[in-house]
């Protein structure tokens, strides 16, 4: 399991395979006898939105450290109780496809990581405000 999967899990996102299981399955292939009767397809199940900001604000309120998760990938990972070491962040950057030119500069990599993690959370059904993207 990659670090991004752990982030999704900590925030209450279902895993991609769970989402695909809950989404509509392709209708069964009709047999010649079944062509005469209509085929019922299962209802489409929408991916429920995860209120990422509310979850993170709640975690921040109960955390004794003052963590600035809105701008810092290190603080975001700490708030979620995940490894925020340089090695872990570098692994996350590789996992998410960070451009090679940013990998050599930890500050640029961190800024890219923070924006990308928030964008990917939004892509996975998290409601992230535009100002954080």
Sequence-ordered SSE layout with sheet pairings:
Layout: H1 3-10, H2 16-22, H3 52-61, H4 73-79, H5 86-96, H6 100-103, H7 106-123
Explain the overall architecture:
The protein is mainly α and 133 residues long. Helix content is 49%, strand content 0%. It is built from seven helices and no strands. Helix 5 packs across helix 7 (106-123). The longest helix is centred in the last third of the chain and has 18 residues, at 106-123. The two termini are 25 Å apart. The model is unreliable at 17-28 and 41-47 (pLDDT under 50).
Descriptive keywords:
about 130 residues; mainly alpha; 7 helices; about 50% helix
Kindly summarize this structure in a few lines.
The protein has 7 helices and no strands.
**Structural class by sheet pairing and helices:** mainly alpha
Please report the number of helical segments: 7
The backbone outline, from C-alpha atoms, is globular
Q: Terminal Cα separation, in Å?
A: 25 Å
Give the strand content: under 5%
Q: How many strands? A: 0
Please give the share of residues in helix. 40-55%
């Amino acid at each position: 399991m990659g670090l991004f999967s752990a982030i999704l899990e900590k925030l209450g996102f279902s895993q991609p395979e769970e989402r695909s299981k809950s989404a509509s399955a392709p209708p069964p292939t009709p047999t010649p006898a079944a062509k005469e009767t209509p085929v019922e397809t299962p209802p489409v199940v929408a991916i429920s939105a995860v209120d990422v900001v509310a979850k993170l604000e709640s975690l921040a309120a109960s955390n004794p450290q003052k963590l600035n998760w809105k701008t810092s990938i290190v603080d975001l990972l700490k708030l979620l109780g995940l490894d925020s070491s340089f090695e872990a962040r570098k692994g996350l950057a590789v996992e998410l496809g960070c451009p090679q030119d940013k990998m050599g500069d930890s500050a640029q990599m961190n800024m890219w990581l923070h924006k990308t993690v928030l964008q990917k959370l939004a892509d996975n059904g998290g409601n992230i405000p535009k100002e954080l993207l």
